[in-house]
Amino acid sequence: MSDLLPSWLESANAPGCPFPLNNLPYGVFSAAGDTPRCGIAIGDRVLDIPALARAGAIEFDPGLFVEPAWNAFMQAGPESWRKLRARLQDLLGANGDPRLRDDKALVETVLVPLDSVKLHAPFRVTEFTDFFASRHHAQNVGALFRDPQNALPPNWLHIPIGYNGRASSVVASGTAIHRPWGQLKAPDADAPVFAPSRRFDIELELGAVIGSPLGGPSSVQEADDAIFGYTLLNDWSARDIQFWEYQPLGPFQAKATATSIGEWIVPKAALEPFRVDAPAREKPLLEYLKEPGPMLYDIDLDIYLRGADGEETRISRTNYRHMYYSAAQQIAHHTACGCPMRIGDLTGSGTISGPTDDSLGCLIEMTKGGREPLVLKDGQPRTFLEDGDTVRLTGAAKRNGIAIGFGNCVGTLLAPLQEPYAR
Question: For 18-36, what is each residue's pLDDT tens digit?
Fold first, then answer.
């Protein structure tokens, strides 16, 4: 594990700071009603990248940063990603190029207090695919709906199962969503009803952002090379709608309400020291899915829940290292049929659950299908989400006093809209 990279910006050196010089995550921000623009978090500041480019402090065309999204910069390619990261670490490093540090006027212009800005979606999502790749999650959910001795589908240990989602439903952290309407059917009912979902849930995931296009079948290494970075992801799920609709083609409306993404994209380069191996394979994988090296990461991830008038409670802590399939394997499988991947494509890891009751990634697991309610700090019980509930995901890779933080992924559930066909 590398040491903390010291910065002349003292807040970046504070113990446990989520945004040290080792991190430099990509985001989009606006301040005091200004136009949203690309920024990078460092300490307790956001570095205004377009302003830095216009000042000539970085040798990049300011046009790469005109759009309030990192897509154009992604398109510039991995060598540009490497060069910008190296240049910023030089400009912000305690012993690096003093041009920024010594120019007080430029510092005031380009380093904006993080607590004074509004954060937006960090990139424009072109496509979204979600997976089902945590062994613990698949086992737990399968046991709720099938024979616990045969909880895993027969293909699960051979293939990263996924489904194509909706890019139009991906929303920025902080976006409130309405409880969805849909067809619901109780197991003992003769017919479904059209009503608001009563079993609305969360899914703690990690999203992989594709920064380089893949034209067709790609190896796991090629898929890994194409990843620009990772972001927090909450794939909101209407479990009762899902129960009725998912056979034989899988989730549809149950997963189409919203998918929230985090405030920042953490560069893959920042996570390199935290790589870990996948768990032992119960059955050997086919050659095209075999990893050339460690493809998972040691990242602590937390879920917090707060009622409309209540106190925030941490309801889970898990870790991305518990996944069975990595993002690189998921992407390689995605391309196996010839499906291209484009810049700005987003893949969700699937719910990240660990082996213990306090490390589960969704409410349906935590409450055993709604049979065992959680009790929040203020005494409120929860089986599934109630109107007014706010969910916050956060996470960081931590080692040797260094934290590589992901910021937050926040969403509030609002009451359902007026019945769609009553208007």
Answer: 999 999 999 999 998 899 9
